Fold these 2 entries.
Entry 1:
Amino acid sequence: MIPPGLPPRPDLSRLNMSVGFMVTPTRFLDACQRRCGDYFTLRPQEDRLLVVTADPGAIKQVFTGDPAVLNAGEGNIVLAPLLGSASTLLLDGEEHMRHRRMLLPPFHGERMRAYGETMREIAARHIAAWPRRRTFAVLPSMQAITLEIIVQAVFGVDDPGRRARFGAPLRALLDMLGSRRQVLMLALSLNRTGPRSPWAKFAAAREDADALLYEEIARRRASGDEEGEDIFSLLLAARDEAGEPLTDSELRDELMTLLVAGHETTATALAWALERLRRNPAVLARLLEAEDDAYLDAVIKETLRLRPVVPAVVRRLAEPMQLGPWSLPAGVNVAPSIYLLHRRADIYPEPDEFRP
Ligand code: HEM
C-alpha cells in the first residue's frame, strides 16, 4: 500500500512498472500522465517510492529548493553499482561540496577552449571514415568520438592508440548497459553471481575497468606526475580545505563519473541531433547557411528538449514537503520529469514539432 497523502499510482504491478519504464519509457510516462495527471507515484522497488511530476511550478520548487532537504545523492542511489558511493552524483551536503570544490577547477573557460581543438580534430577524423551514399547507425560513431574526447581530456593521452587502450574496458562496461533490455536483465539479476548471470558479467567488466583506473592512479602517484594539464593530474593535485587529497577509491569513483557522465550523454545527444536534422531538411538547410553559432545553439537546445538524454532527475526528501496539492512525507523520492515537462502544450505550442 502506498501511504496516504501521496499522488495516485497508475494501477500497475511492480513488474509492469519496471518493464514499462525501462522498455518503452516515453509511452509509459505518457500513459501514466494520461491516467493520473501531472503527479503520479511509481514504486520501482519495494522500499523506493518515486513521485513523478510534470508540474512546472513544482519542478521549479525542486530545483530552487534547499539541497539539505532535497537530497540528489540519495536520489541517485541506483547509479552506485557503476559510479561508486564517492561519486559527486551520489553525495549530499558537506561531502558533496568538498568534491565539487575539487572537481570544478579543471572545467574553466580557458581550458575548455583548449579542449575544443582536440574535439574538432577527433570528430573530423571519425567523420572522414563514415560510409558515403548509404545509411548507417550513427550512435556507435558518436560514442567512439566522445569516448576518445573524454579519455583525452581526463587522462591527457595524445596518442589515439593509447586512447583506445584506455577506452576499451570502459566501452565494454558501458556496452553492457547499451540497451533497455540489458538494463532490465541486469536489474532482474541484481547481485546474483551464477555463471550465466548478466549481473556477474557486469561485475567482471567493472573489475577490468577498475583495474585500469587503479593501475593508472598508482602509476601517477608513484611518478609524482601531478603537473599535467589533464583532469586526472588536476584531481591528483587537488586538496580540500583540510589539505587532504582525494583517496584512491574517491578518485576512482570521480574518474568513472566523469568518463560515464561526460561521454555517453554527449554521444546520445549528438546522435539525436543528427536524427532530428535528417528528418527536418528545412532546419538542416538553414543550419548549413547560418553565419554564426546562434542557430546551432538553438538546434542543440531543441534537440535536448524533444530527445532529452536524461528523462528525469531525482531528489530524496529528508523532510516532509508540500509539492503542489500534495503533502509528501520524508523518505519519498521526487522526480521532475524532464521528458513530460518538455512536451507540455501550454509551454511549447505544438510540442512535438522540431522548431529550433
Ligand atoms: C548532453 C550532455 C549532458 C547531459 C544531458 C547531462 C545531464 C545531466 C543531468 C540531468 C545531471 C543531474 C542534474 C541534477 O540532478 O540536478 C547531470 C549531472 C552531472 N553531470 Fe552531466 N550532462 C551532460 C554532459 C556532461 C559532461 C560532458 C560532464 C563532464 C565531463 C558531465 C558531468 C556531470 C557531473 C559531474 C554531474 C554531477 C553534478 C553534481 O552532482 O554536483 N555531464 N548531468
Note: The chain has a mean pLDDT of 89.
Entry 2:
Amino acid sequence: MELLSPRPGIGQIKPYRPARPPEDGAAWVDLSLTVNPLGPGKKALTAYRHMAAQIHRYPDWSQDRLRHAIARRYDLDAGHITCANGSDEMIHLVTQAFAGPGDEVLCHEHGYRGFMKAIRAAGATPVIAAERDLVVDVEAMIDRANEKTKLCFLANPNNPTGTYIPSELVLRLRASLPSHTLLVLDSAYADYCRRDNYSDGTAIVENSDNVLMVRTFSKLHGLAGLRVGWAYGPAGVIEAVNQTRGPFNVGIAAQAAAEAAVGDTEHEEATFAHNSAWLPWLSHELEQLGVRVYPSVCNFILARIPTDPSLGVQAVLDHLARRGILVKPTQDYGLADCLRITVGREDENRALVAALGEILS
Ligand SMILES: Cc1ncc(COP(=O)(O)O)c(C=O)c1O
C-alpha cells in the first residue's frame, strides 16, 4: 500500500515554536510576541462587543466597510485593497497566487520567518540573500534574482532584527528586479518607523505595476488576536489574491473592530508615544548590562547576549522563566546568541531589566 504523504516542501516547514508551554496557567510577563502592551483601543473594543449578537452571520465577503475605512485613513483607493486573516494569511495567499513548484522566491537572510513557511507551503523554492550587519543588502538580493524569481519578499522594517532600509534602496531594488518578479513589501511595523528616509511603500505601489504592500492590525492597533491584515497593490494582483482567498476569511467581529481601530488615531498616538519612551529606555538599560542592542525602529529589540562559555542564551532564558518572564529566542532565524524582547508596559520593562541584571551583572 502506498503511504499517504504531503507535497514535497511541506516536511521542510519548521514547526512554530512558542516561547510558552501551551497549557501552562502561570501569569507570565510575556515579551516574546510583538504585540501592543497597551492592548486594543476603546473604539475597537466597543465595535467588537457590539458585533457579538451578529456572530451567527457570515462576514461581508467584499470587506467593503473595512477597505473604505483603511482607504480613508491612509488616503488610498479602496478598490486596490484586500484584507486577510492576519498579514500571515496575506503572505500565504500572494505566494500561492504567484509562485509554485519550479519557481523561486527571494528573501533576505534574517527575514521574517512567515515568508519561508508560505514559500514551502506553495511548493516554491526559497532563495536567501545575505544581509550586512543584520540589515537587508539590496545588492545581494538583486544578484540572486533571475528568470525563475516570481516573488521577492522584503520585510521593512524587519522582524526580528528591527532594522530598516531607506526608500531609495527599495526603489533601487524594484528597478533592478526582473519585471516578472512581484516585490512584496511587508510593512508590518511601518507605523512605528517615523523616519524621513523611510516609506511604507504606498508611493512605490502607486508608481509600479509589480509591487504589493502588506500591513497588519496586529501591532500598533493591538488586534493580534483577531487576525486582520491587508494589502494594497495593482488591480491585477489584488484580483489574484481575491480569487485565491476564501470569501469569508476575515471574521465579522474582526472586520468591525479593525474598522473602528483604523479611525482611532488617539490610541495609535498613545501606543506610538509609549514605544518612543520605552524602546530607548530598554535599549539603554540593556547596554548598561553589557548586552549588544541592535538599533530598532520597531516595538521590540534584538539583544545579543554577551558570550561567556558559562552563560549561554539558554541560561538567560531559564533565569527569566524562573522570574516569570518570557522573551523570544531567535535561533530559528540563525541568531542563536540573541533574544528578541518586545517593549512591554512600564512594570514589565522594569521587571525584565531587574531579572537580566541578576544574571548578567
Ligand atoms: C514582519 C512581520 N510580518 C508579518 C507578521 C504577521 O502578522 P499578523 O499575521 O499578525 O498580521 C509579523 C508578525 O509578527 C511580522 O513580524
Note: The longest helix spans residues 265-288.
